[in-house]
Every structure is written in C-alpha cells, then in structure tokens.
C-alpha cells in the first residue's frame, strides 16, 4: 500500500491526459463542500431527544453552531501544518488521508448523535473531519497548477468550484436521507451521517487515485505561463519557509482574510437579512430561494473570476473585487431604503461571485508571486486567513446588528452599519492588494537549491520530449487515443451529473424568490 501511495508511483507518462486531473480534484471538493450544508442538520439535532419538539436535554442551536466553527478552524490549521508534507508525500497519499479523516469523522459524529454526546460530534465532524477538510482542500491545488501553468486560474477555479457546489448536492441529499430514516424514535441524523461518511470516503478515495503528477520540467506544448501580471510574477521559486517571511505573504493573507470576511458576513445571514430588510415583502420560502441563488452565484464566481484572472491578471482581478465590492456594499442600504428587492438581490449576488472568486483565484496568485514548487504548502498556511475570517464575519454581522437594535434602530435598518463597515473592510483590502510587488531576487532559490529540493522530493522521473502531447493522443492514434478521450468524458460525467442535479434542485427553490405569495 505504501508503494501504491508513493509520490514516484504517480508520475505521469508522456501520453497522460492532463484533463483527467480537474475532475479528480472536483470529486474531492464536491465531497468536502458538504461543510457549507451542515446547517441542514441543526434543527433536527436540536430535537434529537424530543423528536417532534425540543426538550431541555436537547442541544441548543448555539451549542450546535460550534460544529461548523471547529471544522473551519481545523481546516485552516491542518492545511497550514500539512502543506509541506503535501509537497513531499504527493497528492494521492494526502488525498487518501483526507478521505479517511472526512469519512471517519462522519462515522464518529454519527456515534456521538446516537449516544447524544456532543463531545463526540465535535471530535468527529469538527476536529477529525476538519482535518479532512483542510487536507482535501489543498491536496489538488499544487497538482493542478503544475499541470496547467498556462491556465492556473481556470484549473484551480474548476476544482474549488466543487467546494461551493458540494452544498448544492449535500443539502437536498441530506434532507432526503433524513426523511427516509426518520421514525418515531429517531430524527434520522445519525443514519444519514453513516451513509454520507461511507459515500464520501469512497468518492474521495476514487478522486485521490486518479491524481497524477507531471514529470519535472514538464510544460504543455506550445504554451507558456501568461505574463499579464509582470509586476508581480516571480522569476523563480521561493521556499515555503522563506515565503512566509516576505512582505508579500502577510499582504496576501490580509487580501484573502478581508475578502472572505466581507463575503461570509452576508452569506451567514442572508435569509434573516432579506426578511428583516423587506419585512412582509419576502416570505420564508422566498428567503430560502435567495440562499439557494447565492450558492449558485458563489459557484459561478469561482470558475468565472478565476478563469478571467488568466487574462486580467490576479492583482487586477482582486482590485476589481475590492473596488466593485465596496460600491455594492454601499448600495445595499440604498436598496433597503427604496424597497427594491431586485436591486438588493443583484448587489448581494454579485458580491457572492467575488467571495467565491477570491477562494478560486488565490492559489494562482500565490503561484504567480512565489513560483509553483511550494504553492501547496504556501496555500495551506495562507488558509489560516479563512479560519480568522470565519470568526470575524459572523461576529461582526451578529454583534453589530444587535448593537443597533439595542440602540433602538429598526430591524430593517440594523444591517446598514454592517454594510458600511464591510465597504471600509474592502477598501482596506484594495490597499493591501495595491501594495503587493514582485518578491525580491534574493528570496529565490538558486538552481542548486531547487535541484536539491527536487531530489529530496524524489522527483526523478525523466521529462517527456518538449513536443509530447498531453491531449490524449501520443501519436499512436486509433483505439488507445479514443480510449483516453472516453476516460476523460466518463470522469467529467461522473462529477458533472450530481452537480447538475444539485444545481437544478437549487434553481427550483430559487425561483420562489420571484413568485408572489
């Protein structure tokens, strides 16, 4: 088994089709994206003892809220500490460990629900599952960037799109499973956890075993890295230990943290916000449709903005995020005062595209600034910004709202101050992004240091000829080439079908927003 998971075992041959790697990454991210849908279990878990209504011994919603918080915190911590291991061990081994943690975490959480022990739920989903989240999140990133040096943004966008899309599948699937297992003595949560844990383990394992690494020095034929950000693109590779000590790393950390803080502020309170701002005009069912619509824009923004960044450049793309986002946040209170639901929905939906786009674009930004050799490790450490934003965003929106209400401000106007502060947060992000420059030459690894590092990582497979094709045709023609193209089509179909089902289900609910009760 150790040999099967080794880094050397997954060095690809010259005929390997690089388009098999994105669906493998997408498969893993669709599984761990369930984290965005964990709230569908909150109400059933709050009456796990009472079944039909909550009893004093049942868990409170505030208690259950820590499940997601722990998962996001351990996502950041595990990604930070395991990033260097990823570069050494390879994405297959890390993917297998991620599958074990994520699937096993569900099983431990199921036991906690069955025994009604919240500590086991925290341990299973929050701690162990959170580690699976972090490992599963970063394991495909450096692999995709190495395979797509010409389309870094698009490649990482396709994978990270899955993290947003996972909730579209998990929410209706979880609801259907809980309905199937619900009985007079059970709300159906622990059984659903068992099914999901096993399904996610198998799916992530399949994704991990599809991973391949390009040989050292490989480049796609006839293509080169886009030079649209010449002011920041690295002239070499920066070691992870050096990268975190440069001025560029804290600036990029702040860029991600501020962008995510602003987006998660809206995402976490979308349903109550639209109902309170437009009291009586938006029903709970329409508000649920609004949340679904935001999920779709979150997903679409991940692939659209990340792909666009290949042409605009990462620095310019983030400049658009911060400038346009600040303007839109300033417009949200105006939409509330004028009673314009369409304007409100339009502003928030565009904001959510940039929230998702920020996640998908940051790995390519890191590769531009620090080179590709250690991008997985650097990305892992940068994800601690997500952990911080996961605390800052909800705290800001909840406490500022309550502060306004305590001062006598009407609920419909209680979010105005939050929106104005978020606009200021994005202005600060704009300035941080503006300050990013190319890493000074003294921080780059020398050719000897890079060669020694590659030897240490045992990347010893010979590089294919420069003219070798990776589009599924190695020059042999006939059945082998057709077989490889069929494999690519099947891989994309395997991840596309459930995602299409989730999108269709969410669209049906989102249409309620535009219907009158």
What labels would you give this structure?
mainly alpha; Growth Hormone, Chain: A; 2 domains
Question: How would you characterize this protein structure?
Answer:
By secondary structure, the protein is mostly helical. It folds into two domains: 13-217, Up-down Bundle (Growth Hormone, Chain: A); 226-440 and 501-511, MFS general substrate transporter like domains (Growth Hormone, Chain: A, Up-down Bundle). It has 20 helices and no strands.
* Tally of domains: 2
Number of helices: 20
Overall 3D form: globular
- Tell me what the CATH architecture of the largest domain is: Up-down Bundle
| C-alpha-based Rg, rounded | 23 Å
Give the DSSP E fraction (strand runs of 2 or more residues): under 5%
The name of the CATH superfamily of the largest domain reads: MFS general substrate transporter like domains
**How helix-rich are the residues, as a percent range?**
over 70%
Low-confidence stretches: 459-478
Count of individual beta strands = 0
Give me the secondary-structure topology.
Blueprint: H1 2-5, H2 21-32, H3 42-45, H4 61-89, H5 91-115, H6 118-138, H7 141-147, H8 152-181, H9 189-210, H10 240-243, H11 248-267, H12 270-277, H13 284-312, H14 314-338, H15 341-370, H16 375-382, H17 384-406, H18 416-434, H19 447-456, H20 478-510
Helix pairs in contact: 2-8, 2-9, 2-20, 4-5, 4-6, 4-16, 4-17, 5-6, 5-9, 7-8, 7-16, 8-9, 8-13, 8-15, 8-20, 11-15, 11-17, 11-18, 12-13, 13-14, 13-15, 13-20, 14-15, 14-18, 15-16
């Amino acid at each position: 088994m150790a040999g099967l998971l080794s880094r050397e075992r997954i060095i690809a041959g010259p005929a390997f089709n690089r388009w098999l790697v994105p669906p493998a990454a997408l498969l893993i991210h669709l599984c761990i994206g369930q984290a965005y849908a964990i709230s569908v279990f909150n109400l059933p878990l709050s009456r796990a003892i009472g079944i039909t209504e909550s009893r004093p011994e049942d868990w409170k919603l505030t208690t259950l809220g820590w499940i997601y918080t722990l998962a996001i915190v351990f996502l950041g911590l595990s990604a930070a500490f395991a990033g260097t291991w990823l570069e050494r061990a390879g994405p297959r081994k890390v993917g297998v460990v991620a599958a074990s943690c994520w699937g096993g975490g569900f099983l431990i959480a199921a036991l906690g629900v069955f025994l009604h022990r919240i500590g086991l739920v925290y341990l299973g989903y929050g701690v162990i599952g959170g580690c699976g989240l972090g490992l599963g999140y970063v394991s495909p990133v450096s692999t995709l960037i190495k395979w797509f040096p010409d389309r870094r943004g698009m490649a990482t966008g396709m994978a990270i799109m899955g993290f947003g899309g996972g909730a579209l599948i998990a929410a209706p699937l979880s609801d259907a499973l809980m309905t199937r297992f619900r009985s007079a003595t059970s709300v159906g949560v622990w059984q659903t956890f068992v099914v999901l844990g096993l399904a996610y383990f198998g799916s992530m394992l399949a994704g991990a075993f599809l991973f391949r690494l390009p040989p050292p020095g490989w480049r796609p034929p006839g293509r080169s890295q886009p030079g649209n950000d010449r002011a920041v693109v690295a002239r070499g590779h920066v070691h992870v230990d050096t990268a975190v000590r440069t001025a560029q790393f804290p600036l990029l950390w702040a860029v991600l943290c501020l962008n995510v803080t602003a987006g998660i502020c809206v995402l976490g309170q979308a349903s109550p916000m639209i109902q309170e701002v437009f009291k009586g005009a938006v029903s709970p069912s329409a508000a649920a449709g609004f949340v679904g619509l935001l999920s779709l824009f979150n997903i679409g923004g991940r692939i659209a903005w990340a792909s666009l960044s290949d042409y605009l450049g990462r620095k310019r793309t983030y400049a658009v995020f911060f400038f346009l986002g600040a303007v839109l946040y300033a417009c949200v209170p105006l939409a509330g005062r004028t009673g314009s639901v369409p304007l409100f929905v339009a502003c928030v939906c565009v904001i959510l595209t940039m929230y998702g786009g920020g996640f998908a674009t940051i790995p390519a930004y890191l590769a531009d600034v620090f080179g590709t050799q250690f991008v997985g490790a650097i990305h892992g450490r940068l994800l601690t910004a997500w952990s911080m934003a996961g605390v800052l965003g909800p705290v800001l929106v909840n406490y500022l709202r309550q502060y306004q209400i305590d001062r006598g401000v009407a609920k419909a106007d209680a979010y105005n101050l939050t929106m104005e502060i978020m606009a200021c947060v994005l202005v600060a992000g704009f300035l941080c992004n503006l300050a990013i420059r190319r890493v000074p030459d003294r921080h780059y690894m020398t050719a000897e240091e890079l060669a020694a590092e590659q030897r240490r990582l045992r990347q010893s497979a010979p590089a294919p000829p420069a003219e070798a094709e990776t589009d599924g045709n190695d020059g042999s023609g006939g059945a082998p080439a057709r077989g490889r193209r069929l494999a690519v089509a099947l891989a994309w179909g395997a991840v596309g079908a459930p995602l299409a089902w989730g999108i269709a289900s969410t669209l049906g609910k989102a249409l309620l927003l535009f219907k009158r009760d």
